[in-house]
């Protein structure tokens, strides 16, 4: 009998990136606990992380390849994938194929997928489900800082005197971070302001809740910027020495939000609450503004991000302990995907297509025969191209777009029409039914590689059980296809460590400090060191201060070294409520569920709190629509309809409704939030407006 053993790994669910100790008993059963030495969580886990040991069963697992629903051998399946992709490229060009990938991929998986598509196939048609999560933050960071950088670290939550949580139900979506914030609040009296249309669990502990109207964040933060200027609460030296564009941004903010009364009216808030928030922000030097999907998932998400960053630049509150704008990501490796170029508009290693020398540099580094020269299709546009027949071969990796994409009916129709669909995943999902070829991928506990969390901390996911059946690592599957497509020399990797070293080397290649994303210090990592790799922030340089909090020196990775104020104006949501669709539907997460429930849905204790699809309504709205608690309701939008049980709550503002995003599987046909969500996207980020769509609600 085997000895019991303990393996250090990382939680696969959210962007907090908690360290997990997995103990495998002699009889093979696995229990998990928080890793007390991991700097993201110091031993804490939330309900989802604590239940990881209960998700390791074989329920729903894909165990062997399938072709058209019939079991097949790996060679047969991989040959077919390579042949179909090669033929589509030969007949219709490189842009006739696409990969839709996932923040569930490890950095090494992501790296080879991006390299295959952008360097060897010659298209940038690779996008990730992170497009639905934080693409607006990426675009906002690049506009302000010149590079996609989260400046701060989690320690800043513990040294701040004020934390502003905007568009973030942190208590449920990033629970361990919330626990860290509350611990600091108990210790040092940190003030919490929550800006969210709903009174979520996060607001339970706050000093001030601003239930603003959906989509009015830019107005609120423009008003704050105008107030900071009027009150002289700005850092003139920082603005002079380290920024550009202050005058234009403040002029537009002042015109947009000339008074507190105007802001209060435009945001649907009490003027006294707006005043209180502005006073707190103006008077509290150590302020962190945390933002998440409520900001990002908007037709104007990038402007919202820049409205927040503008206020931190004006006060010089960035790059210092307890200060800064802070985007928290939804997925364990959303950040790692951004680093390797998992988004269609990125190249690799934080380089992009706007710079011809970067295209040349990446092409030379990869010795790529066919480097892509322009950005590819972003997620919503990609599925539109599939629907129009422009994409002839699509590979979906580790994600479930038949449920999670907005306007999901159209996505399902597109998948069923596509000439050739490959799905590689851990379990059978709503999307796998559209696959011509189904490839079984290794899951958490079986995979080996790295992830990067919301604070730029690289951690290892390590295997502790073998993949079941014939499942294989994603990087291996991608390389096996690349080799069959004739790119063998560039994809002959023998281990994830080898891929990681190449990724690190690319980040440092001809990088004389022009890009902050630099893993140069890890280029020579031996296999043993990779195996023992302890969590570490990037840039992986020697100076600890640089490895943790960035921009401490007031220099930014823009051509002139200055951060940019971005002038932004409040714009309306893509659609407004009207007589036909009188309520505003918001979507989001439940405390105990993850994504489309493919893992957490198998754990009875995680299902117990919310066992069926529900829509939250204010009692007055329910009465106006002749609905009562527990009724089955029919919700329809311009894009489709769903059914859900009515849940009455005063936490919901009048005129608004809320539905969780998770429902899939046997609920997918009737309750997937994607069926009613809007596919209208932000023009800068391509991120869809998942937080607001007008809806009509009737008794079923
Ligand atoms: Fe996992 Fe996020 Fe919970 Fe940490 S907070 S245990 S990373 S789901």
UniProtKB/TrEMBL annotation:
Highest taxon of source: Bacteria
Cofactor section: Mo-bis(molybdopterin guanine dinucleotide); [4Fe-4S] cluster
Species this chain originates from: Mesorhizobium hawassense
Example of a GO MF term: molybdopterin cofactor binding
Protein name: Nitrate reductase
Residue ranges constituting the 4Fe-4S Mo/W bis-MGD-type domain according to the UniProt record: 4-60
Residue window of the full protein shown: 1 to 700 of 889
Highest classification ranks of the organism: Bacteria, Pseudomonadati, Pseudomonadota, Alphaproteobacteria, Hyphomicrobiales
Alphabetized UniProt keyword annotations: 4Fe-4S, Iron, Iron-sulfur, Metal-binding, Molybdenum, Nitrate assimilation, Oxidoreductase
BP-aspect Gene Ontology terms: cellular respiration; nitrate assimilation
Family: Belongs to the prokaryotic molybdopterin-containing oxidoreductase family. NasA/NapA/NarB subfamily.
Gene Ontology CC terms, in alphabetical order: membrane; oxidoreductase complex
């Amino acid at each position: 009998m085997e000895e019991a053993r303990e393996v250090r790994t990382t939680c696969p669910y959210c962007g907090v990136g908690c360290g997990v100790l997995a103990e495998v008993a002699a009889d093979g059963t696995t229990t998990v606990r928080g890793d007390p030495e991991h700097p993201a969580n110091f031993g804490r886990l939330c309900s989802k992380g604590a239940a990881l040991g209960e998700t390791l069963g074989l329920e729903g697992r894909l165990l062997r390849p399938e072709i058209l629903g019939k079991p097949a051998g790996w060679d047969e399946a991989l040959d077919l994938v390579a042949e179909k992709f090669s033929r589509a490229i030969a007949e219709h060009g490189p842009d006739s194929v696409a990969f839709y990938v996932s923040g569930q991929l490890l950095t090494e998986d992501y790296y080879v997928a991006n390299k295959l598509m952008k360097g060897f196939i010659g298209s940038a048609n690779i996008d990730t489900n992170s497009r639905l999560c934080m693409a607006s933050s990426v675009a906002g960071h690049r506009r302000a800082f010149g590079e996609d950088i989260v400046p701060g670290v989690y320690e800043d939550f513990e040294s701040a005197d004020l934390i502003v949580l905007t568009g973030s139900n942190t208590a449920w979506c990033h629970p361990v971070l919330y626990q860290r914030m509350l611990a600091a609040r108990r210790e040092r009296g940190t003030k919490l302001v929550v800006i969210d249309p709903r009174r979520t669990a996060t607001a339970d502990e706050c000093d001030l809740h601003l239930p603003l109207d959906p989509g009015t964040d830019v107005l609120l933060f423009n008003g704050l910027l105008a107030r900071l200027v009027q009150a002289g609460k700005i850092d003139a030296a920082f603005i002079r020495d380290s920024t550009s564009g202050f005058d234009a941004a403040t002029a537009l903010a002042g015109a947009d939000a000339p008074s507190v009364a105007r802001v209060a009216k435009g945001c649907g808030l009490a003027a006294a609450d707006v005043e209180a928030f502005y006073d707190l922000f103006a008077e509290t030097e150590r302020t962190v503004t945390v933002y998440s999907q409520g900001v990002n998932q908007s037709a104007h998400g990038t402007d919202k991000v820049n409205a927040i960053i503008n206020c931190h630049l004006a006060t010089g509150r960035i790059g210092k302990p307890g200060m800064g704008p802070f985007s928290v990501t939804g997925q364990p490796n959303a950040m790692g995907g951004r680093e390797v170029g998992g988004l269609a508009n990125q190249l690799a290693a934080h380089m992009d297509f706007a710079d011809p020398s970067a295209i040349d540099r990446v092409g030379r580094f990869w010795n790529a025969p066919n480097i892509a020269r322009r950005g590819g299709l972003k997620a919503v546009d990609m599925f539109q191209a599939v629907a129009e027949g422009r994409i002839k071969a699509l590979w979906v990796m580790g994600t479930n777009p038949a449920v999670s994409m907005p306007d999901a009916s159209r996505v399902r129709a597109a998948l069923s029409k596509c000439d050739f669909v490959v799905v590689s995943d851990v379990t059978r999902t709503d999307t796998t039914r559209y696959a011509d070829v189904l490839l079984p991928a290794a899951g958490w506990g079986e995979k080996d590689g790295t992830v990067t969390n919301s604070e730029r901390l690289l951690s290892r996911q390590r295997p502790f059980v073998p993949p079941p059946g014939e499942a294989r690592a994603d990087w291996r599957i991608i390389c096996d296809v690349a080799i069959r497509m004739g790119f063998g020399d560039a994809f002959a990797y023998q281990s994830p460590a080898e891929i990681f070293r190449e990724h690190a080397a690319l980040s440092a290649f001809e990088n004389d400090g022009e890009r902050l994303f630099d893993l140069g210090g890890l280029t020579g990592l031996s296999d043993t060191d990779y195996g023992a790799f302890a969590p570490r922030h990037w840039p992986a340089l020697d100076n600890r201060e640089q490895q943790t909090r960035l921009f401490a020196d007031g220099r930014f990775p823009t051509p002139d070294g200055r951060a940019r104020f971005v002038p932004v104006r409040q714009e309306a949501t893509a659609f407004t409520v009207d007589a036909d669709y009188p309520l505003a539907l918001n979507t989001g997460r439940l405390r105990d569920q993850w994504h489309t429930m493919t893992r957490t849905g198998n754990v009875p204790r995680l299902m117990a709190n919310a066992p069926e699809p529900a829509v939250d309504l204010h009692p007055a709205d329910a009465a106006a629509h002749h609905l009562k608690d527990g009724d089955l309701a029919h919700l329809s939008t311009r894009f489709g309809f769903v059914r859900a049980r009515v849940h009455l709550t005063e936490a919901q503002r009048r005129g608004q409704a809320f539905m969780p995003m998770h429902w899939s599987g046997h609920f997918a046909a009737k309750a997937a939030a994607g069926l009613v969500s809007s596919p209208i996207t932000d023009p800068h980020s391509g991120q869809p407006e998942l937080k607001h769509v007008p809806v009509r609600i009737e008794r079923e």
